Amino acid sequence: MKKVLKNVSFVILLLKMCIIFGQETASKKIIIIDVGHGGIDSGAIGINGIQEKDVAMKIALEILRLNEQAEKPLDIYLTRYSDTLITLSDRTKLSKALKADLFVSLHCNHSQNKKAIGIEVYASRKQSNYSEESVYLGYLFEKVLSDQIGYKSRGVKFANFQVLRETVDYCPSVLLELGFLSNGDEENYLSNKSSLSKIASAIIINLKNVSYERNVN
Questions:
Q1: Least packed by Cβ within 10 Å: which of 80, 176, 177, 191?
Q2: What domains appear along the chain, each with residue ranges and CATH number?
Q3: Interval 145-203: pLDDT, tens
Q4: Which residues contact 74 (CB under 8 A, 6 or more apart)?
Q5: What is the distance of C-alpha 174 from the center of its chain?
Q6: The sheet that has 119-124: what strands, in order across it?
């Protein structure tokens, strides 16, 4: 029964998003913020118990808050707005239904090496319509996060993550690993409300500065 309710909730969200999209002008840019994990999927767990799903959610909600305060807010939608498990396929389906211009997935990292630190930005290994734009955006995110919050960069990398593989055909897409929960210092940083606001602000700055063509497919 819970699974049925979850699926119904997602369909309702999808319909609402489609209605909103239908009311927007053709010149608007649609940005999807994919909030990693959720529900029973906690993602990485820090050495002091912090959960990746919660960090991603807090950053995403702060992005929305900062965006609403902007003079010219962007059209930003989340793949989840609460602690709910949304399948990877449903996340990419939502993005495609909204005809997204950009897909950004938020995550935190984990390593057996407790000294591992820094950010990683991923683009899809799959060669497709928006591969070059995705890599370019990856480097922009890497730079703004490093410059604005002083994060050590571990580089822009390539992976076969499903959310990237299934979006790169119709829009630029990147996945951000925003620090290691397995590292004490970075877990403490990601536990701080002010720090999460800095990360959200850096992401907003990049979204506002990026210039990309609208997907007309």
A1: 191
A2: 2-209 (3.40.630.40)
A3: 998 888 899 999 999 999 999 999 999 999 999 999 999 999 999 999 999 999 999 99
A4: 29, 31, 67, 204, 207, 208
A5: 8
A6: 75-78, 30-35, 102-109, 173-180, 119-124, 153-159
